Amino acid sequence: MTLNLMAVRALLTLYAQNGFSVSVKVSTPALARTLGTSQQSASRILIRLEKEGLIERRSVGRVTFVRVTELGLNKLLDLYTDLRAVIERPMDFVLEGRVFTGFGEGAFYVSLPKYRQQFREKLGFDPFPGTLNVRLLSLDSINNRRLLNRIADVYIEGFKNGSRTYGGLKAIHGTFNDSELCAVLFIERTHYGSDVVEVISPVYLRGRFALKDGDKVRIRVTIPKEKVEREEVGGELVSVGT
Amino acid sequence: MTLNLMAVRALLTLYAQNGFSVSVKVSTPALARTLGTSQQSASRILIRLEKEGLIERRSVGRVTFVRVTELGLNKLLDLYTDLRAVIERPMDFVLEGRVFTGFGEGAFYVSLPKYRQQFREKLGFDPFPGTLNVRLLSLDSINNRRLLNRIADVYIEGFKNGSRTYGGLKAIHGTFNDSELCAVLFIERTHYGSDVVEVISPVYLRGRFALKDGDKVRIRVTIPKEKVEREEVGGELVSVGT
DNA sequence: ATTACTAAATGGCGAGTAG
DNA sequence: TCTACTCGCCATTTAGTAA
Fold first, then answer.
1. Does the pLDDT value for residue B77 go beyond 70?
2. Which residue from A minimizes the CA distance to B68?
3. Judging by DSSP bridges, how do beta strands B154-156 and B132-136 pair with one another?
4. Residue B202 pLDDT > 90, yes or no?
5. Cα angle vertex B174, ends B170, B180, to 5°?
6. How far apart are CA A21 and CA A8, in angstroms?
7. Beta carbons of B182 and B63 less than 8 angstroms apart
8. Do the beta carbons of residue B60 and residue B23 sit within 8 Å?
9. What number of C-beta contacts closer than 8 Å exist between A and B?
10. Residue at minimal CA–C1' distance from D4?
């Protein structure tokens, strides 16, 4: 015997109205409205929940009072802890790709004092003067790059030097080849497409891993919680509807 | 269009296998096994989830890879945040009843130094020498008393004094008539039934509220989170089954 | 105003099976 | 092996309606 989603939503709605510590007055039309279903369904669901021992009902004259039982609360807690275990878990975003030689500007930019100082302060390391270019291999990696671009929250500000303008960028910490600290850069006005990432590190990655162009590398970014932005909001209670 | 519970469980299962940052290899028989349903249902659910834009599928030869989309993740986050908003909320347990005069032992016990000292240390106040007896009125209040008895976590230890043994008790902080600090006592070997609570407070409650026997009073206990114990555990992923 | 029954429609389920 | 179709069966839904 398995509850369906509508019954779970009903149970949650009742619980949300303090229906665990206090019996709440519930009419089937009112419950139907908040659940977005029919009065008949609301009636049937209450009967069902009562049969399963998840709620208790008392009729006083014409109005009925409903109270969520401990068994009912435990059902909700089970669902909640299952969801939490999966969702409040660190998420790994892996970027896999092949090293290639870029336009060679990386070393110049990273060495600029105004950038370099910000890297030191905001990333916590003094970057090797140069960026490693990685062309992403899989669709998953390209998708992860797009997501990380949104999640990255280390902002390196641009600046002006006479007539020349230097753009801003965002960065996020990662692990290179599962061993070296690094940061993935998301440069505002880059020459590269969305299948390329530029990486800096306190160490000389090409030397450290004896990398030649075409070698496969892996960058792993771990996001502590559900920091992933939410496009839509949805709104209503238990909104798994469409 | 509303997803049913099985579809939500499928989405959560896919997401749990890192199916958001990486496409995971999924076969309909394997998914069916973990969901406890048939291969046909697993197939139907994947088709449905894809149609709704919650997952993306790619076939590489015979194996298919599934990836949860951002929309899919948001559906899970919606459900999760809805549940969290309701469950991780302070809970109020209200005990309503009428004052009555007991056997008059309260004053004696509370005044015993070994009890009094523990009250001071563990409850943070010096109790007025006497307990107020309240006979609970509603079924809800009696039920709440039972729950609070389980939740109460201030343990006052018993002791011996010569041949006489003084029993232990549990207590929990509350608010008396929505204004005065108090503590509800759960005494191990009490003369009263489960429809009675004994209350202590730093102030003389009978005087403070000019209480006569039979007067209605209200004790409110606020539990910060879901501290409510769980009888059963349940186990499996999204276990709303029976 | 309620609650909840019956009946008919809709939709989900799994066995069988094709590709 | 796999995916996904059809089909009979059962569960869930809503409309109508009784109490």
1. yes
2. A140
3. unpaired
4. yes
5. 130
6. 19
7. no
8. no
9. 146
10. B43
